[in-house]
Amino acid sequence: MSGLALGSVRIPSVDVLEILTGRADPSPYRTIVLDVRLPRVILGATVGAGLAVIGTVLQALVRNPLADPFLLGVSSGASVGAVCAIVLGSVFGLGAALSTTVTIPAASFAGALISLVLVYALARGGGGGFATGRLILAGVAVSYILTALTSLILVTADSADHLKEVLYWTLGGLGSARWDMLALPCATLVIGTALLTSMARPLDLLLAGEEGATVLGLDAARFRAGVFVLASLLTGVLVAYSGAIGFVGLMVPHAARMLVGAAHRALLPVVALMGAVFLVAADLAARTVAAPQDIPVGVLTALTGGPFFLWLLRRRNEGVPA
């Protein structure tokens, strides 16, 4: 309700309820609530839930509580794919509708998958395991390379109109939400979360240790590869509509584990709900803290997630279980 009532224009809660129930007469308030804020809230909830679920799954796959789509370069890879699609779509004259529904999500998925595979390959040790330092360094290095690539695309783009679009993808934001763009991310979230929840037992086994999972009959390599592809697909679709929003997949899973434990069948639905609430609240703060200016929500999540990451890293260095 707060996400619909608050913003640069404050709307009384009673009026919001009347608008949602269809009892309000046509008015500017009705347009703001139904055509501007409600799609934004739905997109924020979808992206927040998806990023939190992806972060939870990646932490199980690599057995590292510091894993996150943003820190591992997955979001950066998806952003590069989206930016390439924006620029090339303009060059080859693709329509805006085609770019939004097909080209940008497909390019985002490809970029996310390539970056995740690259980080995975760089982080593996001689025995096939992952060291925390190697994993984070590989993710940071790949992110810097992809950020530089995004900057190169921006500099070499013929049209200055690409500047705002590229900045949108790099900072992360929900301001472009519209009703006609919600179907794909919402459907992808529901299907992806359902599939990952059905894999709860293998995820639990893998989180406990690859050797034990293999003894119990899990083909860890094949399972990890398949879930990597699914996680990349989810990330690519979400980033295609929201840009690179960081640290949601890092913070929310840790908070959810404190409530329901580490078993993924119970954890994943709770993570999805908490991620949705977190990002909607963060976007509300982004819209109101400097109103009427709209701060990109990715800036606020980075301001909160950065200190959390440093705290978590310090706990691990001190030997405290994360």
Task: Characterize the overall form.
Answer: globular
Task: Give the total of beta strands.
Answer: 0
Helix content: over 70%
Secondary structure class reads mainly alpha
Produce a short descriptive summary.
This protein is mainly α and 322 residues long. The chain is 75% helix and 0% strand. Helix 4 runs parallel beside helix 6 (132-156) and helix 5 packs antiparallel against helix 6.
Structural overview:
Helices cover 75% and strands 0% of the residues. The protein contains 14 helices and no strands. It has helices at residues 2-5, 13-20, 28-61, 74-91, 96-123, 132-156, 162-171, 183-198, 200-208, 210-215, 220-242, 248-260, 264-288, 297-317. It is globular and about 65 Å long. The mean pLDDT is 81.
Please specify the SSE layout and strand pairing.
Layout: H1 2-5, H2 13-20, H3 28-61, H4 74-91, H5 96-123, H6 132-156, H7 162-171, H8 183-198, H9 200-208, H10 210-215, H11 220-242, H12 248-260, H13 264-288, H14 297-317
Helix pairs in contact: 2-3, 3-8, 3-9, 3-11, 3-12, 3-13, 4-5, 4-6, 4-7, 4-11, 5-6, 5-11, 8-11, 8-13, 12-13
